[in-house]
């Protein structure tokens, strides 16, 4: 064990530039992944928050008769997937607007009439907030008498999902590219390390050292490079996260399991990359 | 111990280095492998060491078959079969003792035993006094002795030697040959490739196998 360690350290000493470059490239690959993780994690939170608020807003005509309104209310209430319907009168709508946007007060005090329409707000049962159900209810509502217009926020959720998919794909492409470059640089580092020790490796093979014995220092070196790269990526993305949260918008940091998994993945990546490079180099001796 | 079964070795560009070679070498035998340069001696030794695999046929060495031994198990063969070369192939920058100790270390000898065992091995090849010298400070014959001590580190059953005296003068050659015979007398098998027929004639008790253009054309003790 001590031998493996000291030889791995000797490996770093022999090619500090290349080793540093390897670490940097692994870090870049994992930084992309970490940033995607950050985006995905926060989008997920946003989506689930929005999902809870998924609702259909049915705006009523100015001239809707009370009988039409209560009929619409009843019709909506009994539709499959609907949890409840709330009637928001014109007065309530105005009040709410004033509460949320105080600037309106200045404008509205000049107005003769209340410009906000009355509406029916339809909430959905948990698990029934899918596009299909929401769309069906919205379309049915649009054809009810006394209804002016129907709006629903489902499109936003869909868009967020889409955004997440695009971000995921971009991260995958970038991450894999950086990962490939990292693997190539690591292969070069391994090649140099093997060449530097060519004579010793030759004698080891000659006298019957086990493959695992010959390989382990190189594998350890690879694992350390991978781990260092992943840790560096984690540090960089933490810095980015802190900066963004402070100056742009509040974000949630990655779940601990993700960070831990990332570092382990880094170690594994380094191990596999060097194992692959070794396979080729040792066969050539 | 060592068996070739209709072994053919073809190198992609160079063609056949060995063709349909069959022989058996029992435990503890002393064998000269002779033939002109390019006749296939080195290839034969490499096949025994499993550094090469036959194109056709089968090589069996101390219970390991070339057909059934995966790459990752070749080290087991290497520990039973020592190998020395014309050019010694010692590690420069390491003393004679360190060169032998290196072989012990990388084959997993217990740490505390490495030094005394390396010293004993050097004594066995008559080089105890030069343990601290590096290869550059040793004569050819002495370097070959270090190489032999290194090959003996894993206590092999047989020693393969590829033109071991090719770089040595007459006196050093005799010294190395005496050492081989001494090892042989204690039960070690020796397979020595050489094109030096004068040398071969000095050891009439040894078995002689002659290769010519990849074929086994003479065997003084064909046996089975
Ligand atoms: N690695 C190799 N690649 C291609 N040809 C080879 C290789 N090794 C040996 N040969 C060829 O095989 C033949 C036998 O070579 P070798 O076994 O080295 O003969 P010897 O040791 O008797 O001089 C020669 O023609 C040589 O050129
Ligand atoms: Mg040869």
Characterization of the model:
The complex is a heterodimer of chains A (285) and B (224). Chain A has 285 residues and is α+β, with helices and mostly antiparallel strands. Chain A folds into 2 domains: 2-49 and 161-284, no CATH class; 55-151, Alpha-Beta Plaits, CATH 3.30.70. Chain A has helices at residues 2-14, 16-52, 66-77, 90-100, 103-108, 131-142, 154-196, 198-207, 211-247, 256-284, and strands spanning 55-60, 82-88, 119-124, 147-152. Chain A has a 4-stranded antiparallel beta sheet. The radius of gyration of chain A is 31 Å and the shape is elongated. In chain A, 31% of the residues are buried. The mean pLDDT of chain A is 83. Chain B is α/β, with parallel strands linked by helices and 224 residues long. Helices cover 33% and strands 27% of the residues of chain B. Chain B contains 7 helices and 10 strands. In chain B, helix 3 crosses helix 4 (111-124) and helix 3 (96-106) runs parallel beside helix 5. Chain A binds chain B through residues 199-200, 202-211, 213-214, and chain B through 71-72, 75-79, 82-83, 89, 91-92, 102-103, 106-108, 150-151, 153-154. Bound molecules: adenosine-5'-diphosphate and magnesium ion. Magnesium ion binds at residues 41-42, 162 of chain B.
């Amino acid at each position: 064990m001590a031998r493996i360690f000291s030889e791995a350290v000797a490996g770093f000493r022999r090619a500090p530039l290349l080793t540093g470059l390897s670490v940097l490239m692994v870090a870049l690959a994992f930084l992309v992944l970490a940033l995607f993780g950050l985006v995905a994690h926060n989008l997920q939170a946003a989506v689930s928050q929005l999902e809870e608020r998924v609702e259909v807003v049915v705006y009523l005509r100015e001239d809707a008769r009370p009988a039409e309104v209560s009929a619409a209310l009843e019709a909506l209430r009994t539709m499959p997937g609907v949890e409840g319907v709330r009637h928001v009168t014109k007065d309530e709508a105005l009040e709410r607007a004033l509460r949320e946007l105080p600037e309106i007060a200045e404008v509205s005090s000049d107005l003769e009439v209340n410009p906000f329409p009355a509406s029916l707000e339809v909430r959905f049962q948990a698990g029934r907030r899918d596009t299909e159900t929401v769309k069906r209810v919205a379309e049915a509502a649009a054809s009810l008498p006394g209804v002016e217009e129907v709006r629903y926020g489902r499109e936003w959720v869909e868009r967020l999902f889409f955004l997440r998919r695009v971000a995921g794909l971009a991260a995958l492409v970038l991450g894999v590219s950086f990962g490939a470059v990292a693997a190539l640089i690591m292969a070069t580092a391994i090649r140099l390390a093997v060449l530097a020790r060519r004579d010793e490796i030759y004698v080891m093979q000659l006298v019957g050292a086990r493959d695992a014995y010959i390989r382990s220092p190189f594998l350890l070196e690879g694992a350390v490079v991978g781990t260092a790269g992943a840790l560096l990526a984690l540090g960089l993305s933490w810095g980015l996260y802190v900066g963004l949260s402070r100056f742009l918008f509040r974000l949630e940091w990655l779940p601990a399991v993700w960070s831990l998994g990332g570092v382990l993945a880094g170690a594994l990546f380094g191990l596999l990359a060097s194992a692959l490079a070794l396979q080729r180099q040792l066969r050539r001796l | 111990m060592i068996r070739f079964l209709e072994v053919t070795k073809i190198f992609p560009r160079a063609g056949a280095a060995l063709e349909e070679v069959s022989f058996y070498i029992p435990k503890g035998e002393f064998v000269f492998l002779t033939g002109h340069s390019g006749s296939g001696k080195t290839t034969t030794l490499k096949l025994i060491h499993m550094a090469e695999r036959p194109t056709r046929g089968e090589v069996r060495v101390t219970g390991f078959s070339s057909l059934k031994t995966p790459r990752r198990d070749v080290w087991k063969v290497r520990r039973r079969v020592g190998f020395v070369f014309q050019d010694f192939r010692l590690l420069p920058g390491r003393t004679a003792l360190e060169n032998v100790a290196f072989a012990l270390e990388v084959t997993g000898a217990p740490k505390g035993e490495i030094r005394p065992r390396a010293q004993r091995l050097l004594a066995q090849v008559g080089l105890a006094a030069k343990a601290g010298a590096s290869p550059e400070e040793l004569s050819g014959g002495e370097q070959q002795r270090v190489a032999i001590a290194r090959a003996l580190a894993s206590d092999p059953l047989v020693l393969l030697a590829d033109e071991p005296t090719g770089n040595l003068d007459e006196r050093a050659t005799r010294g190395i040959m005496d050492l081989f015979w001494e090892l042989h007398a204690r039960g070690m098998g020796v397979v020595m490739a050489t094109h030096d027929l004068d040398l071969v004639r000095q050891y009439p008790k040894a078995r002689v196998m002659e290769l010519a253009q990849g074929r086994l054309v003479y065997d003084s003790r064909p046996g089975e």
